[in-house]
Amino acid sequence: MTETTSGPARGSRAKGGKANKGLRIERVHTTPGVHPYDEVTWERRDVVMTNWRDGSINFEQRGVEFPDFWSVNAVNIVTSKYFRGAVGTPQRENSLRQLIDRVVKTYRAAGEDNGYFASPADAEIFEHELAYAVLHQIFAFNSPVWFNVGTKQPQQVSACFILSVDDSMESILDWYKEEGMIFKGGSGAGLNLSRIRSSKELLSSGGNASGPVSFMRGADASAGTIKSGGATRRAAKMVVLDVDHPDVEAFIDTKVKEEEKIRALRDAGFDMDLGGDDITSVQYQNANNSVRVNDAFMKAVESGSKFELRGRMTGEPVEEVDAKQLFRKMAEAAHVCADPGIQYDDTINHWHTSPETGRITASNPCSEYMHLDNSSCNLASLNLMKFLRDDDKGNQSFDAERFAKVTELVITAMDISICFADFPTEKIGETTRAFRQLGIGYANLGALLMATGHAYDSDGGRALAGSITSLMTGTSYKRSAEIAAVVGPYEGYARNADAHNRVMKQHSDANDVATRMDDLDTPVWAAATEAWQDVLRLGKKNGFRNAQASVLAPTGTIGLMMDCDTTGVEPDLALVKFKKLVGGGSMQIVNNTVPKALKRLGYQPEQIEAIVEHIAEHGNVVDAPSLKPEHYEVFDCAMGERSISPMGHVRMMAAAQPFLSGAISKTVNMPASSTVEDVEEIYLQGWKLGTKALAVYVENSKVGQPLSAKSKEEKKAEAPEPEKVVEYRPIRRRLPKGRPGITTSFTVGGAEGYMTANSYPDDGLGEVFLKMSKQGSTLAGMMDAFSIAVSVGLQYGVPLETYVSKFTNMRFEPAGMTDDTDVRMAQSIVDYIFRRLALDFLPFEIRSALGIHSAAERQRHLETGSYEANEEEFDADALAQSAPKAGQDSQAASHEEAPDSKDTQRTVAESEAPAPAPREAHNSTELLEMQLGLNADAPLCFSCGTKMRRAGSCYLCEGCGSTSGCS
């Protein structure tokens, strides 16, 4: 895969490009004359995703086509997240082949147009190899690629962005705007606010400056608003401040003070659960905060000396503080609310390939991408378990040769994508095209280590992780140098050539001195050593096509796409997990890595069976029959009876970090018993061990908990009995004799009917008539009675959105196609009626949150990638023209015969009562909670209501694939 040919130039578009030789692409997985699609068995499946809390259907598409070896979860994620086109229309994608072709053929065409391939035959091999690797879940691009590439909307391929802001109001307002546009597209951004003068400095007018913390408040509110409009994921952002900024203490305290506010409001009776009504009053919650420390500060902490805070405008000292006290203040804040994290500035810039252009000052929201301001990075991750080989004798090896070839293929594709990619701002586009930052990484490390019998926190585990990371990055830069020979190095290379080659030497030196441990990692180190020697040789000759090559991202949604057991660099969450079954339902299974590990450790089949049964029953390996205590550590997980120590996480990060261009998205989980001193030690060791950034999370430290019916019931049970009970009765608001209305004829699954919806003159639905075509039938009679009940409820104040949320997605016959362009499919007449009422009477924001959009709105979503409100005001005069006829007055009068108000009040109250707490788990996180008797501090998914789990520095929903970060 590394050959080039000396054919004629093909018109490279790269500035300063050399004569184009063209890449020769080698076949690794595919066969000449046979398309990868023809080598697998395809089957049709129905994807129906529900919210288990209320039974509503979040997504439904039937008859989708996937290979038979894809899991239910992977099929669900890809169908609901990545297939393009409106559901129910011919334009909707319905096969994995269509999705892969849309992306892969776009990459091939761009590669041919930009002179990457030596011949059309090489372009075809590239297409087939890329399609094979995706089809067989060997790797995946980051989500924006699957969302956007090959569609009519902007072809944004990057998930990670870094912005910049200067000390001017114009720049600050540009920051708000640019960040908002990135959030609107579903991505995240980070930036450093240290250029903004502190509140201890003067303005040119003579007054005091506001300081960066005050401007954070406005940006936080903006992010929260944009998040609420999308209603599917939080706005992901990172805010960084240098440790020598005069406002650093105020920055550290921002979330601590808000946490105190949460406690006070909670104790006063306000609903401060995550997702509760009152939590929105809390500020600074839409960003991850990090303090950027330098070596001078960390040495001052060690020596207990003073440290100077410097003015932004003059660089002169403004204040002198005790470094150890400031460091402790950071640790105290992180112990309470997990923020701020820490970034090690000198370490980061020591590995910077482009320092002549500018320093690295910030990161993306999850902390893995670190490079120049106003830049972006597109990511892709390799599934490490796909390269683990087991021979007939039970011996294991890591297929380093095939891993390197797939890495070359993926890096080539990632670089090609920059040729056609769109960017949210022109500044980001210019920087990314000039430096071509890439972020190849991997997932399933935790599963690989367990399957090979390595404890996550062990020398052997770290050696294997380090060797794989070194081989990946070395191969990536080798390929980058080969591409540079074909289409030229990145535009900023000439100015930064010495620094770039120095950093390559640093990587190579780290590889040479790394410890080799066993038969698994030693061959991988050998392959990595050879790759780095090629990097040094080819880099000096050709330069490099990419300023950076690798990161370790959270791999949230794409990890589920690849059926990975573990995300990014994380260990396994637990030994037992949920598996969804074809045809519905789920089952608890012991991870497949467990029997692999036991076999590697030398256990016999009957012993393995007994140990697996013990794990299935207890969720851990403690006291498992025949299992040696010295092997317990192999099965240690992120949570559970035997959880990995905090320093175990830090040591793993340190093992991989010297072999990465960027950094690692990871949160160091700490037990609830951890002290402030423990946090200080983690931050200190992170610096000494050479990591670039890390964050900590102390279990149960945050006050806000996910909203759940159980917690609500417990709060009610704990509340003291009131001394006096005041009963409030609803008051019926009758409609006037003359009332505006809309009459709609409809057909659902062949059944015809009419609906008349009458409103109050001052807006608001108050009455519904339903007539089916067959008078006197049971269905017609039930619809008539149902409409009376709904109308009475509306007049007693039951909100329309309550009815919509309860009755949409209700399934019964007749169901099927309708004659309404806005609601093409209905699962029942009731489902259709309340979707139509929502479209006619509810504001965009409310029904959008319920997933109800008009045909025009869905079309706009396809064209722009987002829904936009375009609601006309309720026109009473226009509705009056369609008011009910006189012949309908008698039925209107029948609505006046209402049941007793007490009965109505009781019925409404019962319908609104919170559902009882679930008695069974619905994903791995909840299963672990039940086993351990704890409450995982993670938000509920906006899309499906499932409790999310940590993935790096972000959160991932196992139910629908939504993430809170940028992968």
UniProtKB/TrEMBL annotation:
One of its GO terms (biological process) is DNA biosynthetic process. Its EC number is 1.17.4.1. Catalyzes the reduction of ribonucleotides to deoxyribonucleotides. May function to provide a pool of deoxyribonucleotide precursors for DNA repair during oxygen limitation and/or for immediate growth after restoration of oxygen. Residues 47-137 form the Ribonucleotide reductase class II vitamin B12-dependent N-terminal domain. This is Vitamin B12-dependent ribonucleotide reductase. GO terms for molecular function: cobalamin binding; cobalt ion binding; nucleotide binding; ribonucleoside-diphosphate reductase activity, thioredoxin disulfide as acceptor. Belongs to the ribonucleoside diphosphate reductase class-2 family. The lineage of its organism: Bacteria, Bacillati, Actinomycetota, Actinomycetes, Kitasatosporales. Its cofactor is adenosylcob(III)alamin. Residues 158-697 form the Ribonucleotide reductase large subunit C-terminal domain. Coiled coil: none annotated.
